[in-house]
Structures are given as structure tokens and as C-alpha cells.
């Protein structure tokens, strides 16, 4: 699988392509294999996002995960740039509880693009399974201006 590395304010991210779709975003990524037009476009969009010029990614995505995880990923993709939802709000939409939502968020293979950082606990920031943990989540929320008291 080809990987395109992109330097961002939150570190070097590796965007992984498989069969014409983005399947993973890896922390501390490194270029691997031959660059494809899709990976070039993904790097362009990632740079535009961190420059504050892009609020919604337009890339073919194929995240790994079971049916429930896929449903959670779709819910996260529906959260607009600069906005947040709680685990409980997503749970209500999917007729489940907050804990399974949090677990699915933690399994998100394409963070940033599938914006799990936009999902918060009812009483605060919640967790983040990406490199850097909660500090990374805060950095991404600040990037979007989506959690005003952090700015």
C-alpha cells in the first residue's frame, strides 16, 4: 500500500491508500511506495485544512471496521467543521450508549479526516486515542475553533 507523508502542525502524518481509497492515517508517517494522484490530492487537502482553507475533506474513504464502527464513522463525518457533538448525542442517533461510541471513535483508522476529535464527553473534552492523546485532540479543536474556551 502506498503511503504519502505530509508535515503538519501536529506532526508528520502518513496517508495510506488501498484500492483507490484512503484507508488509514498514521501518526509519524513516512513515504512508502509510489505516489498516486489520490495521495497527491489527499496531501493537498491536508495542507489546505491546516492552512485554514479547507473545512471538509473530499476524498474516497474506506475505513476498516465492523458495521457499528462504520455507522459511527458516518456520524462523525456529518459533524461540521468547527462544531462538536457528545458521545451521548451520537449514541442517541444510533440507539446505543456512549461507551460503545467512544470505543468506535478510538478505533477510527483515519483520524483528522474522519473527525473523531469533534466528539466530546458530556462533561468535558473526553479521550483521544491518537498520538499525543488529549493534547492532540485539543490542538485539532483549536485548529477548527470548535471549542471556544480552549482558544
Alpha plus pi helix count: 5
Distance, first to last CA: 38 Å
| Portion in strands | 15-25%
Number of domains: 2
The radius of gyration is 15 Å
Structural class assignment: alpha+beta
Low-confidence stretches: none
Shape: globular
Looking at CATH, the homologous superfamily of the largest domain is: Winged helix-like DNA-binding domain superfamily/Winged helix DNA-binding domain
User: What's the mean pLDDT score?
Assistant: 92
Order of strands, main sheet, comes to 1-2-3
**Biggest sheet architecture:** 3 strands, antiparallel
Q: What is the element string, with H for helices and E for strands?
A: EEEHHEHHEH
CATH second-level architecture of the largest domain: Orthogonal Bundle
Kindly report the CATH topology of the largest domain.
Arc Repressor Mutant, subunit A
CATH class of the largest domain: Mainly Alpha
Number of strands: 5
Proportion in helices: 25-40%
Textual characterization of the structure:
There is one protein chain. This protein is an alpha+beta fold and 151 residues long. The protein folds into 2 domains: 3-50, no CATH class; 67-150, Winged helix-like DNA-binding domain superfamily/Winged helix DNA-binding domain (Arc Repressor Mutant, subunit A, Orthogonal Bundle), CATH 1.10.10.10. It has helices at residues 37-50, 67-77, 87-93, 98-106, 133-144, and strands spanning 3-8, 11-18, 21-27, 85-86, 119-120. The strands form 2 sheets. It has a 3-stranded antiparallel beta sheet, covered by helices on one side. A hairpin with a 2-residue loop joins strand 1 (3-8) and strand 2. Helix 3 packs across helix 4. Pfam families: DNA_binding_1, Methyltransf_1N.
Amino acid at each position: 500500500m502506498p503511503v504519502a507523508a505530509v508535515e503538519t502542525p501536529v506532526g508528520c502524518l502518513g496517508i495510506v491508500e488501498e484500492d483507490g481509497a484512503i484507508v488509514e492515517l498514521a501518526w509519524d508517517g513516512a513515504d512508502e511506495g509510489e505516489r498516486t494522484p489520490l495521495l497527491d490530492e489527499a496531501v493537498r487537502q491536508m495542507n489546505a485544512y491546516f492552512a485554514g482553507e479547507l473545512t471538509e475533506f473530499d476524498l474516497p474513504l474506506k475505513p476498516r471496521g465492523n458495521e457499528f464502527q462504520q455507522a459511527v464513522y458516518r456520524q462523525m463525518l456529518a459533524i461540521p467543521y468547527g462544531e462538536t457533538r457528545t458521545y451521548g448525542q451520537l449514541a442517541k442517533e444510533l440507539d446505543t450508549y456512549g461507551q460503545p461510541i467512544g470505543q468506535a471513535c478510538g478505533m477510527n483508522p483515519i483520524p483528522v479526516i474522519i473527525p473523531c476529535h469533534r466528539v466530546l464527553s458530556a462533561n468535558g473534552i473526553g479521550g483521544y486515542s491518537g498520538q499525543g492523546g488529549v493534547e492532540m485532540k485539543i490542538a485539532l479543536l483549536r485548529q477548527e475553533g470548535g471549542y471556544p474556551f480552549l482558544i
